[in-house]
Amino acid sequence: MRKNSxxxxxxxxxxxxxxxxxxxxxxxxxxxxxxxxxxxxEVSPDLKTCKAWISVYGDEKAQADTLAGLRSAEGFxxxxxxxxxxxxxxxxxxxxxDQSIAYGVNMSKKIDDVNKNLEKxxx
Length: 123
Fold this sequence. Notes:
- It is elongated and about 65 Å long.
- The chain has a three-stranded mixed sheet.
- It has four helices and three strands.
- It has one domain (6-122): K homology (KH) domain (GMP Synthetase, Chain A, domain 3, 2-Layer Sandwich).
- The protein is α+β, with helices and mostly antiparallel strands.
- Helix 1 crosses helix 3 (74-84).
């Protein structure tokens, strides 16, 4: 199975959907922030490993706590994932903090600042 095959894309989408549902409704760990979302999921072609990029709305402490909570609940999440999705192998999940939203907000702020400075200079 190629990395970008239709089957792999479909599996990535289904794992992302189920993973988001598990994190939102099944995990009771207080370290996991309420506003945690699964941005993207990449399951390897052999279905053994999975990278899940998560986004946490909050400061760096909330992100670190959420990541620690998800890593400690990895076995529980994998068990729930195996019950929801019928795959040959249930992938081992690696959680990665996605910084793209924060990066985009920061870049947007910088662009606005530059535009304001240009407007002041033109006046």
